[in-house]
Design brief:
The complex is a heterodimer of chains A (about 140) and B (about 180). Chain A has helices at about 15-25, 35-45, 65-75, 90, 120-135; strands at about 5-10, 30-35, 50-55, 80-85, 110-115. With about 140 residues, chain A is an alpha/beta fold. In chain B, about 55% of the residues lie in helices and about 0% in strands. The interface of A and B includes residues 88, 94, 103 and 106 of A.
């Protein structure tokens, strides 16, 4: 693990994205931010990232989900692990009567609910990165 | 990359998929305020609201309830000489406040929307008697009676359904909804 890993955050809440970024930067990752899905997608196409941290509720609605689905269809980007960070349960509480968050809704590697503990976040990020690396080696 | 995002930029991000010019294209002509049918009930009219967003007065914008009064008639959008989608901006602000849980307590709008969405998701059709009760109890006694009387008259004339309508193939519809909105089970 000599080189720095490139991460991308797509989240429309600038304060939250900033907080996450500072946690990750401190843990020696290189982090880019995008504040809307369009910008985020453009960044993904332009540069190669090792991990994507994705918000769900952006723009018109559940646009994070749209990005995750689009990623699954893209041959090049499919390999990249995706960590979803969402507070969807809080945001649309009336649609979530206590059950788990969308079980078969979209294929993602990991889902964390806001507010997220820094330690938990770093744990998940490093496990996902390791997993993708072993996958690549095979 | 710049690190701080202005409130104006936040709103622009929210409306990234909307066709039409960004909010800062506004030239303060006041056509939107003049044409708005519910403008008289708003504490801040659309033109002023846009200026407030432009000036980055986030707290003041969040404290207004003007955008909750928007009836979505789209007159402002149609008439805006600068081509700003103002009605969509109002929707954007509604989402913004709902997602952050920062709307005033005594509003009818959020509860109404909630009941409406729940209704559609569950039965596929809107059912007015349930929808009306989402704000019915916020009314005064006099208005309540008037409302009840109105509803009875409508029902007697067959204008208001007594039983909720059913749609064909509800299961298919529900599956479709599940693809669009991330509903928990």
């Amino acid at each position: 693990m000599s080189e720095q890993k490139q991460l991308l955050i797509i989240d429309d809440d600038p304060d939250f994205a900033e907080g996450i970024k500072s946690i990750l930067v401190k843990a020696n990752y290189k982090v880019d931010m995008a504040h809307n899905p369009k910008e985020g997608w453009a960044a993904l196409e332009k540069k190669k990232y090792d991990l994507l941290l994705l918000d769900v509720m952006m723009g018109r609605g559940a646009e994070g989900i749209m990005i995750a689905r689009k990623l699954g269809k893209d041959a090049k980007l499919r390999e990249m692990p995706v960590l979803i960070i969402t507070s969807i349960r809080e945001q649309m509480a009336f649609l979530f009567p206590g059950a788990a968050v969308h079980p078969n809704f979209v294929d993602v590697d990991e889902l964390v609910e806001k507010p997220v503990e820094p330690k938990l976040l770093l744990d998940k990020v490093s496990t996902l990165l390791k997993l993708s690396e072993t996958k690549k080696k095979k | 990359m710049s690190t701080t995002v202005s409130f104006r930029q936040e709103i622009a991000n929210l409306l990234h998929a909307v066709e039409g010019n960004p909010v800062n294209a506004c030239m303060q002509c006041g056509t939107c305020s003049g044409t708005c049918p519910v403008g008289d009930f708003m504490d801040v009219r659309p033109q002023r609201l846009i200026r407030m967003i432009d000036a980055g007065l986030k707290d003041k914008v969040m404290a207004t309830r003007a955008f909750w009064y928007c009836a979505s008639c789209y007159q402002c959008t149609v008439r805006c000489p600068r081509g700003i989608d103002i009605a969509e901006l109002m929707y954007g602000l509604k989402r913004y406040t709902i997602w952050r849980n920062q709307y005033p307590e005594d509003l009818i709008g959020p509860a109404f929307s909630e009941t409406f969405v729940k209704n559609i998701v569950r039965t596929g059709r809107s059912y007015e008697p349930v929808l009306a009760t989402s704000y019915f109890f916020t009314l005064g006694l006099k208005e309540m009676l008037a409302e009840a009387q109105n509803a009875t008259m409508l029902m007697l004339k067959g204008r208001l359904p007594v039983l909720p309508a059913r749609i064909k193939r509800l299961e298919n519809f529900k599956r479709m909804i599940k693809r669009i909105i991330p509903i928990g089970d």
